[in-house]
Design brief:
Length: 224
């Protein structure tokens, strides 16, 4: 297809004072997103998850190839299978495979090999990256900046879930290859990227104090 453009019609310009207020409000809102590890089993409508996955799919990607696939899991049986496999891996990780430095870094978070939330939370979303594809379903082209693109989409997903009013956790069992089989994505083209756990937080969910230490602007940004 030759290059074709349409006018930009959906950009919204806000008055400057409204822009600052919006940015400040957004900051306050996103600062309320915390990784939580205790979820309620309260159901969450599939429709809500669908909207959030569509928001993730709006992320920019290399050549707009959208090199991602999301597997949204609410099946109790599949969640249980994922928990069993993840816990087996995590047991090895916490028993020493991680090494002393990594385990020390995790101490203030209080994480361990128990992953009950993988069964309790109403939804797990497994994010897969794709080496080849393209914008059309039948395309088999090289994908570009795959890691960057899928990272952006996953960020959009977390933001969408939080915005919708759900709790979230990024989970990265190591290695993650078991997810390919369980999710029916066991092929040469796709790799598991991250597992997102989402649902309502349990009434007694907690946030580690360590996770609340966010760096200041001076620490994370320089201006030239
Ligand atoms: N995947 C393990 C360990 C873990 C690793 C990091 I880096 C974290 O920030 C948190 C946990 C687990 O889920 O327990």
């Amino acid at each position: 297809m030759t290059e074709q453009h349409v006018p930009l019609t959906d950009f919204i310009e806000y008055p400057p004072e409204q822009m600052l207020a919006r940015a400040t409000e957004h900051l306050a809102d996103i600062r309320r997103r915390h990784s939580i590890r205790k979820f309620s089993d309260r159901p969450v409508a599939r429709e809500l998850i669908e909207q959030c996955i569509l928001a993730a799919g709006a992320a920019p990607s290399g050549a707009n190839h959208q090199p991602w696939h999301f597997v949204a899991i609410q099946s109790q049986q599949v969640k249980q299978q994922i928990r069993t496999e993840a816990e087996a891996l995590e047991q090895g990780f916490y028993a020493g495979r991680a090494g002393e430095e990594w385990l020390d870094a995790l101490k203030p978070l209080g994480t361990n090999a128990n992953k009950a939330y993988l069964e309790t939370a109403p939804w797990l979303i497994a994010v897969f990256s794709k080496k080849r594809g393209g914008v059309e379903d039948q395309d088999d082209k090289t994908n570009y900046y795959v890691h960057e693109s899928v990272g952006l989409a996953t960020g959009f997903l977390l933001q969408a879930l939080h915005h919708a009013g759900l709790g979230t956790l990024t989970h990265t069992p190591k290695p993650m290859s078991f997810l390919s089989k369980i999710c029916g994505r066991d092929n040469d083209n796709e790799r598991p990227y991250m597992l997102i756990v989402t649902g309502y937080p349990a009434a007694d969910a907690t946030v580690p104090v360590h996770a609340l230490k966010k760096k200041s602007l001076e620490q994370i940004c320089s201006f030239l």
